[in-house]
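Need tokens for this chain, all 134 residues.
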Amino acid sequence: MSYSRAKNLLEKYALTPQEYAQIALDQGGVCKCCGKAPTGRDLHVDHDHKVARTKFSVVQLGTDWVATCQRFNHVCYGTSRENAERLMKFWLLRKSVRGLLCWACNSGIRKFLDKPELLRSAANYLVEFGKSLV
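Here are the structure tokens for all 134 residues:
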């Protein structure tokens, strides 16, 4: 894996190349959504944008700084405000990772706004049309 790819994984998703490889191994090296093996390009990291942007607070307690995320009941301690914020953002990015997807599945989920109800509705639409052809 190239240095720029490794840097991108760490900055965007808080994943090391080893963690990415482990997720791929756990998924059998295929897209978690459609089950197809990647062709030519690595699988894309699918993540929940709302989780990555979850709000949290940072307060000073004595000499420590504490970042608290109420939504996930998680706390990060830092030596400075910036350190505590960075640790919480890193934790949220990593928590937001859902799996590895092929380009088509990743872009499809994004086009359906990460909303399961829209995906179910689209699936029902296709099933109903298929029934009308019989």
